[in-house]
Each structure stands twice: as structure tokens, then as C-alpha cells.
Amino acid sequence: MRTVFSTKCIHPRDRFDYWMDFVRRNIIVNDAKPVCRKDFEVELKTTSVCGIEISITKSSAISVTHTQRHAKQASADDLFIFMPVVGFKKLEQDGRQVCLTRGQFALIDLKHPHCGQFSDASEVITYRISRQKLESRVGNIDCLTARSVTPGTPEGSLASAYLEMLPLRASGLGEAAQALAEAHLLDLVALSLTKAADGTIPRTSSVRAVVRMTVRAEIEARLADPSLDADTIASAAGVSVKYANAILAEEDTSIRQLLQARRLARCRHALEDPAQLHRSVSEIAYGWGFSDMTHFGRRFKAAYGLLPSECRRRGTGEGGNSRP
Length: 324
Description:
Blueprint: E1 2-6, H1 12-26, E2 31-34, E3 42-49, E4 52-59, E5 62-66, H2 68-73, E6 78-86, E7 89-93, E8 96-100, E9 106-109, E10 114-118, E11 122-130, H3 131-138, H4 154-169, H5 175-196, H6 203-221, H7 230-236, H8 241-248, H9 255-271, H10 281-287, H11 293-304, H12 308-316
Antiparallel strand pairs: 1-3, 2-5, 3-4, 4-11, 5-10, 6-9, 6-11, 7-8, 7-10
Helix pairs in contact: 3-5, 4-5, 5-6, 6-9
């Protein structure tokens, strides 16, 4: 991770003001108050995985307020996940309050007012994620904000461990690995948030979220199976193809379209990966469930605007000697 802000070389009287100026210009517009201005210290490190921004903040005790006025200035696509690794963080939003300690995390929507408190000498991991990508998995997130996900459940434990581990490994990941890591993180967060809110969100919304995630999980698990079809996927989710497609229509897709899109994405990652130059284009296509190379080439070009062989040359810098 890269250190992007530190108060170590700033005079104590200016530290908090410099920090707030940095936050408002680069992270979020809010109001804050330190418990002790003259002793205030903070350090911020950042990294990213695909479209997810990750930061670790080491800070003195501070309280933060994000008002309705601030919320109107926030990006409509931004959601935050907070998880302390040292100390605690208190959060309040949408009438709910949580106090997070190590291994616990919660979702905050920047389009709604919220407030929070960092304990002294705290260390908090923050994930800035896409609303669209999370809502594509769980539906509307209004009922999921400011709910504590704990490692007390299998889902929460796995998600928590992943959230804590990823910042330390992100900088060494290639493009293909980053895409997989992003998808895994969002899937784990979506599943654990839904479990944490079970019984408190509308039953129809909960059922649709579970079906949506089950369909996606079944597709990801069996992408390489050329016999995988809509009937098999819907059956695994315990619903009809018609019902599953009605849910996916909220994302402007269907089982068949999603299956094809995920296979094409895996093929593209493989074609652009220098470590897979020894594999032919056809081997990669067949390996990810395609059974007809003409169909594969046509669909690939429709999705990405270039042929699979052209994608390989661009991604790996080959001079045109790729295997067919």
C-alpha cells in the first residue's frame, strides 16, 4: 500500500486542518472534530483492486458528521465499508447504530446522512465500492446500512477474513486476479450483509437477493461445463427459469446472457494473461465452456469490438504469432 497522507512532518497546530482539507478534496465532504487537536495524528495508506478503492487509516480519536447537505454532494455510486483492525469505530445511519471492533464491518451509504467516531489509536480499513455492483447482487441496500456483520457466522467470518487480507495482497495482483478478487469480495459482502439483516428486510426482497446470488454463484462454479444451461442454473437456485430471468431483468440481463458474459470475460482474461501464452485461443474457448469457435469469435467481437486473436496480441504484446 502507498502512504498518501501523514501528519508526521506537519506542525501539531496544523495537522487536523491539513487532514480535513485533504479529506474534503480527495475522499468525502463532511465535518469532523478531534478529541484533542494538539495531539492529533493520522496516517492514510491506499491501494485499489479494479474499481474498488481500499484505504487503511491510523488515527487519533475523532468524530465525523456527514449531513444532508454533504450527502447531496456525494457521488450517487459510492458506498463505504468500514472494518476496524485496531480499536473501534461507531457508526449511525438510517436510525441504526453499531459499534464495530476487529473483524466486524458495516456498510454506509454516502447519499444518506451518517455520523461516526474513531477511537484513539484506531486503525480502520475502508472499502469504497460501487453501488451498482453491490445492488446487482442484493437489490436495494437501504435496509443493509449500519448493520454489523460479525465473524460469528460462517459467512461473516469468511468475508471478514477476506476484507482484512486483501489490502496486504492487492498491489501484487495482475489484472485477471484483480477482477476475480473484486467479484469474490462483492459476493462475500453481499451474502454476509443479507445474512446479517435476515428477518429485518422484506421477505420478497430477501428471497430475490438470495436467488440472484445463487444464480451467479452457480454460473461461476460451472462456467467450464459446456452442458450448463438456463434450466440447470435455475434448478440449482430452486426457481423456474422464468422467475430467475425476471429477477435478472432488473439488471438488464438473463441467465443465458449472464452465462455468456462471464464465459467471455474469463476468456478475455486468459487471452490477455502473458502466463497463458502457451494455450491456443481455441483451447481457452473450449476450456471455458464454448463448443463452437465461429460462435465464440462472433460473440467475443460483439462484446469487446475485436477478435480473440487481436485481443491476445494487444494484451500480451505479441507480434502476431499466437496459436489459433
